[in-house]
Amino acid sequence: MGSQVVQTLRQGVWASLTGGWYHDPDQNKFNNSCHLYLWIFLLMLPLSLHLALPPTTMALSIYCSSITVFFVLIKLANYRLHLMFDEGEAVVRSSLSDLSKAQEKKSNASDSCLPPSISRCKLLMSVCMCVCMCQEEDSLDDSSETSTQEKPARKIYYKLKLFPGKWINILYDRLTLLALLDRNQDVLENLVAVFMAFLVSFLGFVLLNHGCFKDFWIFQFCLVIASCHYSLLKVKKSSVQDKDAGHNQLVAYSRAAYFCIFCALIWVLEQLLRRKDLPVSSLYGVTIVCYDVLRFTYCFPITFLVGLFPQINTFTIYLLEQIDMHFFGGTAATSLISAVYSILRSLVALSLLYGFCFGALKEPWDEQHTPALFSGFCGLLVVLSYHLSRQSSDPSVLLSLIKSKIMPALVESDEEEEDDTNIKDPLPEKLQNSMKEILLSDIIVCSVAYILTFAITASTVFLSLKVAQLVFLLYALAGTVGFVTHYLIPQLRKHHPWLWISHPVLKTKEYYQFEPREDAVLMWFERLYVGLLCFEKYVVYPAIVLSALTNDGFALSHRKNCDVLLTTVAGLKLLRSSFCNPSFQFLTLLFTLIFFHFDCPRASESFLLDFFIMSIVFHKMRELLLKLHFILVYIAPWQIAWGSAFHAFAQPFAVPHSAMLLLQTLLTTVFYTPLAPFLGSAIFISSYPRPIKFWERNYNTKRIDNSNSRLVSQVDKETGCDDNNLNSIFYEYLTRSLQHSLCGDLMLGRWGNYSAGDCFILASDYLNALVHLIEIGNGLVTFQLRGLEFRGTYCQQREVEAITEGVEEDDACCCCEPGHLPHMLSCNAAFNLRWLAWEVMATKYLLEGYSISENNAATMLQVYDLRKLLITYYLKSIIYYLVHSPKLSTWLKDATIQEALQSYTKWHHIERDPQVFSVKIDEDYVHCLQGVTRASFCNVYLEWIQHCAGKMETPVDSDEDSPLVTLSYALSVLGRRSLGTASHNMSNSLESFLYGFNTLFKGDFRIATKDEWVFTDLDLLQKVVAPAVRMSLKLHQDHFTCLEETEEASILYEAITNYRSNLVICHESDPAWRKAVLSSRDTLLTLRHMIDDGTDEYKIIMLYKRHLSFKVIKINKECVRGLWAGQQQELIFLRNRNPERGSIQNSKQALRNMVNSSCDQPLGYPMYVSPLTTSYAGTHGTLRGIGGGALSLDAIRSWLCSKWLRSVHFVPLNLVEHEPPRSLE
Question: By its UniProt entry, which Pfam families does this protein fall under (predicted)?
Fold first, then answer.
């Protein structure tokens, strides 16, 4: 424990303060000395120059030039040495004296023919070589202090080429060099590092020259500069910002990048504030340009110590995402490319809209008449807002669709390659079709919306609403619709409405079903919910925004350009956010009216700006409430779980620091940073800002199978035999099911209210997955699924029990049990539900999945008769696949095969291998002959051969002496001998028999010398014997339920035929298994070898596709973010790798273990982490049935044609019915 604390203080605290320098006892003296003097040089150079020279440009030039030259030399030498290790030639010498003599001899021979400049370069490199030698001798001296052995005589040197034909020997190695300096992979990284070093020195010394720092703060600022420079040369092993332990190249640039950003801001603001004509604007009485942005760089060491700054790429994503969401109404970003793409398209749309708005409001216009340009601006605003809300922030799907249309030949070649590998994924094509459907629909909808908006705003309909009563009627309509849609209906559908009622008021049809077998039935309240939602998104809020724009047009035309820009931004943001997710818009509207019309009417600017500002404030207030709820639930003394002794100490210690906790909560709410419990205790500390996606890296689970593993691992051991790897396919299929239906189910209200960043847990009998909603758009949802272990830890099981247990039977009230009212919860149950960070939203949520049934193979094969039955099915399956092979006629006529099978044509030929054939397991075994003969084989299997041959379209000779019987007999011997070889010739032992059968099941055949004739055509193994092994397992399993299949050949033949077409039987390491699951095959069967906790079992696993019932539990998203951030800090920064640490112990009020175990590895241990997956509303069949699907020209044409044909057929029918009867004449 003491060494761990010292290591944390040295590599965590001290290294964060110095930029990465610390004394590492694991390194030699040379490296530690170099690091120390390097850091002292970087610290004293700016300090001495600032104190010794006047603050002039000359001092700035000297410092910047010195740092630049210094970094160029170091980076050049480092890059050249690594290049030498990559491409250089190693030389073996006996000792240092030999090298010195050889070098001296070579120098004397070559110095006379070299010019003076080259001689000086050679002298310099010789000095470097001597330094390297001294370093090596120093390391040897260090090692000799604790050992009495002699120094090794043989040394390895590398040739460092100076000029063509001229080189010197360097005594060094790559690992020592990496310990001395970090490696930059290419020339670009070296140039970026040198440029960042120059920028740090330039901006830092500029601020020193301007006199921004006095007295001690000069030294402190020089220490910050030195830490930024040192981080560009050597970064400590791990930092708080790293998600994964080990070296992270981005950390090298993060500190310097932040320093440059803040120093540049300070310098620019200093220059601007010196101007007297600086335009200063104010909004709501707050000055936009503030004078208090200096001195933040003082806190650089502390901020990096406590981890308040993320990696620079994470900060970029976070900053662009927050700007896009709060100012432009955008959605969450999924990557750096996504963030840049989102902000660029928002800026392009804003520029276009601002041009129209500025042109319309450039001159005053009569409020009784709306200019056409302003109507065009309103129409364009609605169209762009709608279209942007329908697009994902990830441009990859759109780019792939464009690529398929522009370069179809390249796409077809890629598809052919996928077809060759037989693992084509249908998901990319499905996403492209959804994107194509959205684009075609937007063409029609946007055109119609533009025309309608232009016509309505050009009229006087919104001008007539200027009367306050009419405007408030529109607000009242929005509030009523929002209250019913987003509060009343979701509360009535919850499992415990208002946490008082014991069951949902609005129940689905599946609520009373034990195992639903059909898709969820569409209920009347779901139709009402969708109708109100569409009315609210596409009618109410566009009307409110357009009304505000039109009525404020006259006032805006007399204001500054800045107000025009703010109005454009506000309109774009409000419309996009209303189209994407209007769940909380009615509350924002209500607070806007109450605050600016009743509480502070003098602070109001205009309704549009008020609504815009309140949308940001209300969003932060919701985050604040969620944080406070998480804190109060987590530290409630009557339900806190003591995970360790530290928790017992931290609980009372945190009480007097409540004010600090409240201040942290406010700050973390403003900057959208997680508030993490320190070591899982009641003490909370702030983490660094993160985007909604949270994790920096796209960690996705990679399934291990035969397509991505070495052949030796497939032969010597089970490929990916652990349960987590094998069971991850079920979560992958669950992800595909959610991709198909999640967006539609959210729009139908089946998960309640939702927003970006929300976290849900789907819990069933064996599947427990955390679903993280990342991006919420108009008709699309991007999510990530994290599957937990099937057989989790004790703590996970306790939390799963807390989720699944019911509270309806609780009759307690305080200390007594008086019962409860009908259909109501007891007082204790209602109280306990309010002190949970999670809530059950639905109990019968249906998703397509696989039910798993497993049987112990040892139980089914314990008796010898059952093993004999399996071998019989094995041989019959070989005969079946042989007869049905399209190559049968070729094999029967092949001269090589006929020659190899001459011995099998003789009736007196006996197979006597006692390690393979046995009377206990072979039906055709002849006891008196101690083996198997052709006669005994025909006595048992000839009828089956003739029955199979009789089903062939082309007749095949199948009498006793036919080549078909000979080949069948030979393959039966081969199959049994392969089983005996795989069983290590111990087939009588159950364990060996199961091991051998499992080896054949996964396709590992060890062919004996007698059976090498099968290599004439490998299809005899791959298409006949291998599938026969798998089919025999299914037939043997059916023997216990359908005994008649073993008695009649016709029934057995039909069963094999049906299973061959409808059932997938293969090993789980076969890529065909994953393909079959993702292709939604109805039934699958496999044999799994399970090795866990000393158990060694073989399980026959059967999968049946059906509808699985899940509980949907919504977790406080701030609870999830805080627990994730706490785990990252504890494992990476504090290096607490204790598997029983207190922060992962069960805590049912916060589901702490389940949330922490869902972290990315190595922080958590999820069974499966899906890639970021986007679900579209157009793929949901029920939702398409309500709205008729997406609009397109083809759909409109088909609808018109159907109506026309119906009218054409209807008119003649009416004429016939009303035509008077004709006479017989």
Answer: Pecanex_C (PF05041)
